[in-house]
Amino acid sequence: MPDPLVPAPVRGLRWSAATAAFQIEGARAAGGRGRSIWDDFVDAPGAVRDGSTAEPGPDSFHRYLEDVDLLTRLGVDRYRFSISWVRVQPTGAGGMNPEGIAYYDRVVDALLAAGITPFPTLYHWDLPSTLEAAGGWLARDTAERFADYAALVAEALGDRVKHWYTINEPVSTSLQGYAIGELAPGRQLLFESLPTVHHQLLAHGLATRVLREAGAETIGIVNNHTDVRPASPSAEDQAAAYVYDILHNRIFAEPVLLGRYPDIEALGMPPMPVEPGDLEIISTPTDVYGFNFYNPTTIAAAPPESPIPFVNVPTPGAPCTGFGPEWPIVPDALTDVLLDFHTRYADALPPIVIAENGASFPEPDSMTGPIDDQDRIAYLQGHIAAVERARDLGVRIDEYTVWSLLDNFEWAEGFTQRFGLVHVDHATGERTPKASFDWYRTHIEEAAR
Q1: Number of Cβ within a 10 Å radius of residue 44
Q2: Would I find Transmembrane among this entry's keywords (predicted)?
Q3: Which contiguous run of DSSP H or E holds residue 77?
């Protein structure tokens, strides 16, 4: 008999794995690449947990053919990677850097030759430092500059690349980057950071129109969503969870899907800097809705003296990933939030792509033997089963993407967190598939039968 704890392969899904440019490419000074806010962040003393700077890391700038070979062995349909804005357009203005775009030419051609569909992301957090100096995502002009950048990339790659993500996780940039300073650019503006939400969504809408004119077949934004759970039935915790749900989920989804923002002014927050026509641009129809999910979030009311009305607390009874209590493992939460979106947005919701899902667990920096990462396998099993449950209940989900193909530079955590299906020795760049790599490959094979 089949093991009841192991879900049957999910049929009818496309399968993918993901990476991001700053996290895997290395070669920060190569080929005329410019400087991004993440270069500034990692160079700031104490900003990154282990003091690392993403160099050399996986060094995919030089070793991308090894990555394509891994993807081929894995059997995925698509590869989600990101294009570095500063590698293509070093200052965020002007023409294209020929050496930078030539790298992505090579990556795209290698993927196509291997029978793997390239699905690049235009922006995965590497804002040019020159644009940050001019206001960054607080400035409306940055959205216009992003549209210009999108046009350059589409002109260079659009003859072969037909599937695009625009902006990755604007919630992380806005809340962690500009509101509390945990991520680049490291600003602590609290609710004064909210214009960065609008300008990133405006950039998405402008880029969507640019890509559509260039012949794109699939376009979508990628938002990070979480199942928000009140810590208790108390009115205070319920109210705090409501505010958090608006700030983490609804403020990013509803302008794209419904053409309007939730009423944040009623909650005492500053109004969005919306100009006439903005919401029509932001809600330009897309073909898919990118949905990143890692964990639920349990929210309690903050103490009266707190400048924000909520606090993230441990989820009762849940095991955790390598990040600890803030990253609980609750696969059913993915089903719950997918069903919530299906109910809330109905026909306004395009087909969903799970654009990131994965987990980090403690693993050695250097290989001394096989890595039998059963915790990661269990995480992936549970969450793929959660996707299947949501599909059985009527949610259209077309694709599932593991984060990440490779162990990489995990932003402010440096090289201390490992998400990869493939172990990377960051001193040598050596790649070694883990047990989860073999499991995912087998799962994809069985799903195709």
Answers
A1: 10
A2: no
A3: none
| 100 lies in some domain | yes
Domain encompassing residue 353: 14-447
What sign does the CA torsion over 95, 98, 102, 104 have? negative
CA distance 355 to 225: 11
Cβ atoms of residues 105 and 156 within 8 Å: yes
Give the pTM.
Answer: 0.96
CA neighbours closer than 13 Å in the CB half-sphere of residue 415:
20
SS3 332: helix
Residue 12: the pLDDT is 87
Could you tell me if residue 94 is inside a domain? yes
What total number of domains does the chain contain? 1
Tens of pLDDT, residue by residue over 248-296, are 999 999 999 999 999 999 999 999 999 999 999 999 999 999 999 999 9
Instruction: Tell me how far CA of residue 95 lies from CA of 98, 367, 373, 380, 443, in angstroms.
Output: 9, 43, 45, 42, 44
Residue 15: strand pairing partners: 400
Q: Which residues sit opposite 313 in a β-bridge?
A: 298
Quote the CA–CA distance of 6 and 1 in Å, as a whole number. Answer: 11
Using an 8 Å Cβ cutoff, are 226 and 248 in contact? yes
The whole-number pLDDT of residue 9 equals 56
CB atoms within 10 A of CB 234: 12
Where the chain has pLDDT below 70, the residues are: 1-11
The predicted pLDDT at position 253 comes to: 98
pLDDT at 1: 32
Question: What pLDDT is attached to residue 5?
Answer: 38
Looking at residue 119, its amino acid is: F
Q: Residue 187 maps to which CATH number?
A: 3.20.20.80
User: Residue 2: its pLDDT value, please?
Assistant: 34
Contact present, 326 and 267 (Cβ < 8 Å):
no
For residue 53, report the phi and psi dihedrals to the nearest 5 degrees: -125, 15
Q: Which residues are tagged catalytic? A: 169, 356
Nearest to 380 by CA among 296, 293, 263, 291: 293
- CA triple 45-124-273, angle to 5 deg: 95
Q: How far apart are CA 166 and CA 149, in angstroms?
A: 11
In this prediction, residue 449 carries a pLDDT of: 83
Whether residue 4 is contained in a domain is answered as no
DSSP string, 157-212: HTTT--EEEEEE-HHIIIIIIIIS-SSTT----GGGGTHHHHHHHHHHHHHHHHHH
Q: What is the pLDDT of residue 167?
A: 98
Q: Is residue 2 part of a domain?
A: no
